Fold these 3 entries.
Entry 1:
Amino acid sequence: MDKLTGWIKKVSQPLTGKTSNSVNKTKTQGSSSQSGTKTSNKSTTSSQNKPQHKKPVHKKPVHKKPVHSNSQGTSKIGTHSSSRPTNKGPIKHTRKPRKSFSGKKGWKRPDPAKKGDVNVGALKYERKAATKPSRPVNRNSVSRMPKGRTQRPRPMLGQVKRETSNRKFPMYEKLPKGDPMRIIPLGGLNEVGKNSMALEFQGDIILIDIGLQFPEENMPGIDYVIPDLSYVLKNKEKLKGVVITHGHLDHIGAIHHYIEKLGFPTLYATRLTKALIEKRLEEHDLLDKVKIILIDPKKPESKFELGKFTIEYFRVNHSIPDSTGLYIKTEAGSMVHTGDFKFDFTPVDGMHCDYEKMARFSKEGVDMVFADSTNAIKEGFCPSEKVIAGNIDRVFRDAVGKRLIMATFASSIGRLQSILLSAVAHGRKIFLGGRSMIDNIRISQELGVISVPMSAVRKLNASVNDYRPEEVLILTTGSQGEPFAALSRISRDEHPFIKITEDDIIAFSSSPIPGNERSLYTVIDAIYRKGAAVMTKVDMDIHASGHAFQGDIKMMHSLMGTKYVVPIHGEYFMRIAHRRLAIKEMGYDPRNVIMLENGGIIELRGGVARRAKESLDQQLIFVDGKNHADMTEKQLNERRAMAEGGILTLLIELDAKSKKLRKSPRIYTEGFLENPDVHGVIIDTVKTQYAKLHQKFGDKITEKVVVEELSHELHVEMLREVAREPVIQIIVSIA
Ligand SMILES: [Zn+2]
């Protein structure tokens, strides 16, 4: 799970080079009030030598109309971009492209938020019609496109926004009178990651987990995504504490983002979880401000009151030791949150599930179980870590005369223990690659969770080459192909100490998280090219998931004897599989298996649960870079639009009096075609359309009209001619 550093891809670059040097940007959105009274000549010269595009030119929302000033003699920038449709079926034909600005009455701007239409500038656009050129064009423009981009661009990878389901799952019972307990998942539904849930009862709120999610392929430049806790932030005086289930980053990774904003609530966590949280808080200078109460599930103190909630921790098995679930009661009802779990009767860390507690909860009454769905599509029981440990030992036994490089999650501490024990038993020195690997093993050693002689473990350094291949184990991060992880650097020959040779076996004790396959295959290919052997789960069972299979899920629900099941933690298809399992195989009433979305609210009272009519509006919050900036979906979509279509900037110079074009428009592009034929079409379009506009408005023509109309026409034209949708910026200079 150590992917943080590995995903920093900056696809969209700020405009530089010729554009920034030569565009006489005379006014930006952010500086309209300063330059609004003088002619653009003045502002032109004043801004000439500045790095223009560091200014917030691109902060203009893609779909918003440009901001304009009413004052004469200024110039401005308008950006226009159309959001691509999601790749879901054909585009509806709603309106033909407008030939020119007519100003006719009765014409309405379409709602840009409406799905299914291509929003070109301000108009819906009939894409099919765009394939026919409006006038003869020199078609060799196509042959001069960059290699691999001769066809229509691939469809977008889908909007970043999470889809919500239209399916309505019926509820039937009436809620008894009195205050209900409200249970609100704030993350982890229809996604793997950023798990968080709020519980509210009679003015008290508690939070369960505050995790992060690693970015998907369609999130350029994003480090990670965090849950939207605005509801809890708004009500932070009600927050009584945050209970944490286990130490994986998708459960603890966003604590440091929120802890201060939440007013430093007290955290509750088991030993290893607490240590891992402390490590992250320390990295952000927050450690001494946060109080974390240690929970030992074996002790009676693992049951405690938090506001009007009674909470009891219980141990579950997972791929990290000290994982727990929660039994939470209020006057209104009771629920179990499983956390991430599986049942392992032979756990390598020796920590068994609290079966006795689970049985007791069942007796005391469990109205609802919120359970992990990650592996609900997999039949049978999740294999025990013990089996994997045996297989790992076989890898060591068989690797005679070979150097072993093993990659796994730094957070799979149970697995690390098995690997380290085998390495020591087979007389290998252990070299650790990757900061999180080193940190996690150090923390686990200190807590006694991992017990191998420290003399056998060291950081990966030059001395690794002093040993014969069969004396070495390199244990590293990078099992997901993360580009900056140690293994990826090794595979690219960029590591200072390690060169892969034919004497190496590289074993992946992991399986790719969906979406990471491409990067992982790149690493595997690179290793094969160097003649080394690669071993994955396909060759031998050297990885077991930490998440419940169908058997484990059924066992959990049976143990708890719950009335309601709520599938959480997982993509929609995983959760639906969980629902099907409960209904088809366990005989649950379909109305009692509740499907929610993030921000959906369940109300529980007197043994009856129902979905509340209202729900919280949840945004995706992206963390981009080090400044902890909360980037919005809108900004990310702008970034993606630039990455997909490039930027086309036009400088249009108008005569101050006549408002006629003073000269031919100038074109600047970034990431867009630099083809003379296409540029010819652009200039022709601008000239023709501007002439029409001028005919209509004369010297009363406004910059707003110029920017809007030309942007629109250019979008139509670019779709028609080259099937591209660049972000279009128009700079109007009046002198
Ligand atoms: Zn986990």
Note: The longest strand covers residues 647-654.
Entry 2:
Amino acid sequence: MTKLGRLYSMFDSVRLPDDLPYTQVSSWELRFLYLVGRHTLSGEGRVVELGSGGGGSTYALALGLKESPVFDERTGRLHAYDFFRVGKGTFATEKFFTSGHRPAHDNSFLDDFRGRLEPFLPFLEIHAGDLWQTSDPDDTTPVEFLHVDIAKTARVFRCVCERFLTRLGPGSVVLHQDFAGPRLPWLHWSTGALLPYIEIAGPPIRSTLAFEVTRPIPEDVLKSVSEDVYTLDEKLALISAVQDRVDRDHTGGIPFKSVLELSKAYVAHYAGEHRRAWSLAKPLTSDEYLARTRADHFEQLRKAYEAQPGTASRLKRLVRGR
Ligand SMILES: C[S@@+](CC[C@H](N)C(=O)[O-])C[C@H]1O[C@@H](n2cnc3c(N)ncnc32)[C@H](O)[C@@H]1O
């Protein structure tokens, strides 16, 4: 069992304050972040959170570090990266403002974040702005912990790969938030590529997959992941390899094999292979969980397929003059 595996039996022992900052992650994930900070991190390598938002996840992690017997607040640092502002393309919500909405003439929630994270400011290092600008391409300091809640586009994922995954080594811990998001297939195929060098901690915790690096990750593997060199079929095979390792999440609510199957459809969709995407997605429309939670995904994939030249529904629309 990895050092993360034993945390699964400790969820019930965690009591987080009721007045945590607004967060988009579940209480299960918050408690896991706390446990990782409290029991597994030393602070000797970089402790990094990518995508702090309004600070809910940051708070849970920072509280764990503060209560850790080994993390030294005088020398250890928690690095928090985010735009810390709302606006087009940021993926940040107005709920990250303490008031719950954006004040007039100000789109930054950085002061709100600072205010709510006040007890931890002595060891919190804030990097505000676009990750491509705020992260240092020349920084090779080892990363002990990486919470990835930022890779909502392939462009940002590339930055995560180039500047952070390259700094992982044996013992490093990674938490991928939104692993239950079929529209983020790069999280899934990249994990497939890393499987020989990592150990998955256990069932995902709601939408979070946790793993520990167990062997040095070869440079060429990281380069292939960063540069997205895999073919469509290779990516599907990499996702299948992850499907062999994960099933239902720890709470029993999320069937990851189905989620990952829908992620394969998105690999095809992003490659412009809409027929293939729909042929992968269509059989999943009868999956109870996906039908209930991902109707919009099916709609998107079906529409893209139907817009293809030569599909029956496109011909029908053309005949009807629409
Ligand atoms: C899902 S939210 C994070 C939620 C947060 N962890 C919580 O506990 O609620 C994703 C965050 O990623 C940030 N983000 C997305 N792309 C970014 C980029 N290129 N640079 C910096 N931040 C980015 C957004 O500002 C947003 O706050």
Note: The chain has 13 helices and seven strands.
Entry 3:
Amino acid sequence: MPTETKPSTTSRTRVRDRMEAAAIAGEVHHGANIPTSRKRMAIEAIDLVKHFGKQKVLDGVTFGVPEGEITMIMGPSGTGKSVFLRHVVGLMFPDSGDIKVDGHSVPHLSTEELLELRQNVGMLFQDGALFSSMNLYDNVAFPLRQHTKKSEKEINEIVYERLREVGLAGADKKYPNELSGGMRKRAGFARALVMQPKILLVDEPDSGLDPVRTALLSELIRQISEKYHCTTIIISHDVNRVRSVADNLAVLYGGKCVAFGSQKEIWGSKDPFIQQFLVGAAEGPLGMD
Ligand SMILES: Nc1ncnc2c1ncn2[C@@H]1O[C@H](COP(=O)(O)OP(=O)(O)O)[C@@H](O)[C@H]1O
Ligand SMILES: [Mg+2]
């Protein structure tokens, strides 16, 4: 771990100690030793700007999301994290700048190409976004019935495999309102995975979940991402709860990406702003506000 930086406060030292402990415990993952600048980026934001009326939400966001790794975007509530995710799948378009997925500029894709892109992206929304009129089985089967020509027998196999992966095989006949918040999120996750996406976007997996269920869901996200070699973005306003699962951290603040890199790079940064920011963020979930 970094030895070149002199921590100037005790709390900074404590954060460093915790990071070092996490690295030793194996919580800093596979891409940790390759410099970010040398990685292949699956998603690139280039000077992305987005206004709503007079409100400038994204004010020149620039960073890359390394392929096959888990990147956590953090920032206070209302900084544009969900807005950013919508740009990745072309549900929103920038006023200026660009967002590229696999080297293709999303704002320049045709409608057909956009639909194809979305089929390669699994999105897990904050509440699971299940159809309330369908049971769990039909919810998970929905994308397969919609976008593929698979037989019901093939669909059946895939749906039960996904449900088993998220620990919900016995709940296939239940309707969303019969499930707990944690189960709904896992069900949403099963549905997000059903098309075997190359990219997985997870918005606030910790919202509405207690710390134990957040930890279990985070672990599940890591296992599945690794199993299917997904490029995964996890969004959270709370650094502490889902940080350990991420290979890389990006900090959105004031409409810009103010810090980006592997956990090692970020926590080893000598930039006093990043240091102050991360110490504040690590000491209280709302420390960034
Ligand atoms: N479709 C929209 N129309 C107008 N304002 C929006 C829209 N979507 C988001 N915003 C505004 O953009 C800001 C950032 O929103 P959001 O990305 O949801 O924040 P968060 O970082 O909490 O996910 C908020 O102030 C929100 O009100
Ligand atoms: Mg949000």
Note: The first helix runs from residue 10 to 24.
